[in-house]
Design a protein that fits this description.
The complex is a heterodimer of chains A (267) and B (312).
Chain A (H helix, E strand, L loop, with lengths): L17 H17 L2 H21 L4 E2 L2 E2 H31 L2 H7 L4 H30 L6 H13 L1 H14 L5 H15 L11 H7 L3 H12 L8 H28 L3
Antiparallel strand pairs in A: 1-2
Helix pairs in contact in A: 1-5, 2-3, 2-5, 3-5, 3-7, 3-8, 3-10, 5-6, 5-7, 6-10, 7-11, 10-11
Chain B lengths: L19 E12 L2 E12 L3 E5 L6 H8 L7 E6 L7 H4 L2 E4 L11 H9 L8 H7 L15 H13 L5 E5 L7 H16 L3 E6 L2 H7 L2 E6 L2 E6 L1 H7 L3 E6 L4 H6 L3 E7 L2 E6 L2 H11 L4 E7 L1 H11 L4
Parallel strand pairs in B: 3-7, 3-8, 5-6, 6-7
Antiparallel strand pairs in B: 1-2, 1-4, 8-9, 10-12, 10-13, 11-12
Helix pairs in contact in B: 8-11
The chains are: A mainly alpha (267), B alpha/beta (312).
Chain lengths: 267, 312
């Protein structure tokens, strides 16, 4: 091979800080999404609206041993976290993959992980906003009185619970087409929510639906949240976490397959 | 294929860095059963503008994607700056303007540039990038609100914002009006003058003619010719014979050596790579032939000849 005599660029040695790239990537990912009304309405407004309607306006009676306004923070919190995570990751990944933008990014010196991390940070950010807003509404208008430590644990559990759904979003984003991605997301998101008892308390669901729900990560996250506030079905905490971690790894594996498939194809 | 000597630019006042900065060695790329590039050997030399010229689907974009590491070769070797084309280190010295279906529309012009600049170790100041791309007054405009030409200019801005040594421009002037195209050409020449190396794909012949030090003609995945625009024109000997003849176009078209026949009022225009031979055949057939004029047909006819003759 012919020798390469182009001068070495000393600047190569001082690559920009990967963390600052990630922060900037996440910042613009955030701006990009909040300026897109379809996204903000779907991930922020719907869960809060459901909570106001079913938890505050209609919610004077109890679900099991809990006030409905308390119970529904866990249920709609899970619902909100799922939506925020799935839409932050899958919808934009599918669009950017399918229409060439990801390729422009890959041709740049952007560290590849920054791109994915920015989407996951987005999922976490919107989940956090959703969860805090639900709690605020509950405390201000729903008579929710929980110890601060419990509130904090509940918030952290729900926010951490967004990670498996970010992984699921990446998996969907690698296989869905740009225009059908939102529909594909809803095809998973809405039935999963129903079967996990996020819309109607799990105990009121028909037996066969409960059986399906028991396999779903959304069920396990909602049970973790409910356990913290004294509701929920039987089952160990670690069992729920293990299921969520296993599910996340499975999704990352599927996303990886999609990534490799893209590399082999037109790219 | 004889390699062309380094041509000189009229405005090349700075010493050009020497050497090859990217090489293809017998590269082949298949997409499933489709052969996009076949046995492709070619190099990019420091400081030159090399134009990959070919009809749509010839393999130009595939060559660029290989150079960027976006796709891997099926076989053969490929090096950019002596290293792996896909590595982030290599990419810090490269800028690329690709054909893209959709760019995030809710980000503003300066935000897009700010983000891409942050990937590079030594980017241009954002103001400078905006000025070069002619986007200064549009800096706060969202991408979705830009016109087609303005969108192309933003993609150009993203390619140059990192102050890269090597630029890939994939069909950079598609969709631009004449004025915008000339402006972009000027910017491309300015970059060359500053010592940048540029690989450009185009199917506009005049673009290759106006900008390139070297033209590489690709057809159906194979390199069919390379050289300076002048050499390509001369070597393929795209010549045009204009004459007034009684022979019908159909008869002339059947003569050996004729590539194409057209008509310009009463004048017959014959494209050929061997004008002497064609004329020798015509004379006995038409003793009244008149108004003979043989001219160099320009890059267009050369290109026609190169991409049509099966075994050139």
């Amino acid at each position: 091979m012919a020798s390469v005599s182009a001068p070495m660029n000393p600047a190569i040695l001082q690559r920009p800080n990967a963390i600052s790239i990630c922060v900037k990537e996440a910042k613009y990912e955030f701006l990009k999404s909040v300026r897109f009304p379809m996204f903000s309405v779907g991930t922020l407004v719907f869960p809060l609206m459901f909570y106001v309607l079913f938890g505050l306006v209609m919610g004077r009676e109890r679900i099991g041993s809990l006030r409905s306004s308390v119970y529904l923070i866990a249920a709609y919190g899970t619902f909100a976290v799922m939506g925020a995570s799935l839409f932050s990751t899958a919808a934009s990944l599918a669009a950017e993959r399918g229409l060439g933008w990801l390729e422009v990014k890959r041709a740049s010196p952007m560290p590849p992980f920054a791109y994915f991390l920015a989407k996951v940070i987005m999922g976490l950010t919107f989940s956090t906003i959703d969860v805090l807003a639900l709690m605020l509404l509950g405390v201000a208008f729903g008579g929710v009185q929980l110890p601060a430590a419990t509130m904090a644990k509940l918030a952290l559990t729900l926010i951490a619970g967004s990670l498996p759904f970010c992984a699921m979003g990446l998996a969907i984003g690698y296989f869905a087409r740009p225009n059908s991605a939102p529909a594909v997301i809803n095809l998973f998101y809405l039935p999963m929510s129903f079967c996990s008892g996020l819309w109607m308390p799990f105990m009121f669901l028909p037996k066969f639906v409960q059986r399906v729900g028991g396999f779903l990560p959304s069920y396990h996250l909602s049970q973790l949240a409910l356990n913290l506030i004294g509701g929920g079905e039987a089952g160990s905490r670690w069992g729920h976490w293990e299921t969520l971690i296993g599910f996340a790894l499975l999704c990352l594996g599927i996303a990886r397959l999609g990534h490799q498939r893209d590399q082999r194809a037109q790219g | 294929m004889a390699s062309a000597p380094q041509s000189t630019h009229s405005f090349a006042s700075l010493p050009r860095p020497a050497g090859e900065i990217a090489q293809f060695t017998r590269v082949r790329k298949d997409y499933g059963t489709v052969q996009a590039l076949i046995d492709f050997t070619f190099e990019v030399r420091a400081g030159e503008l090399v134009a990959l010229l070919g009809p749509n689907g010839a393999g130009k974009t595939t060559a660029i994607k290989l150079l960027l590491g976006l796709v891997k070769p099926t076989s053969g070797r490929l090096a950019v700056f002596g290293g792996d084309p896909a590595s982030t280190e290599t990419h810090t010295r490269i800028g690329a303007m690709l054909q893209v279906g959709r760019v995030p529309e809710t980000l503003r012009v300066r935000e897009h540039i700010d983000l891409f600049s942050s990937y590079y170790p030594d980017p241009l100041p954002i103001e400078r990038t905006l000025a070069i791309a002619g986007l200064t007054t549009l800096r706060d405009r969202k991408f979705g609100d830009l016109s087609g030409g303005q969108k192309q200019r933003l993609l150009f801005a993203l390619a140059i914002c990192g102050n890269p040594d090597l630029l890939f421009l994939d069909e950079p002037t598609v969709g631009l009006d004449v004025e915008a195209r000339l402006l972009l050409w000027q910017e491309i020449r300015n970059l060359l003058e500053r010592g940048k190396t540029i690989v450009l794909t185009t199917h506009y012949l005049e673009e290759a003619d106006a900008l390139a030090d070297r033209v590489v003609v690709i057809n159906k995945g194979s390199l069919v010719a390379q050289g300076t625009p002048a050499e390509i024109k001369a070597r393929t000997a795209g010549k045009k014979i204009r004459c007034v003849t009684e022979l019908s176009a159909a008869v002339v078209r059947r003569l050996p050596g004729v590539l194409d026949v057209g008509r310009d009022r009463e004048t017959t225009v014959i494209h050929t790579s061997r004008p002497e031979e064609v004329l020798r055949q015509i004379f006995p057939l038409d003793l009244n032939i008149s108004g003979i004029e043989v001219t160099s047909a320009g890059l267009e006819a050369a290109f026609l000849a190169l991409t049509r003759e099966p075994n050139n």
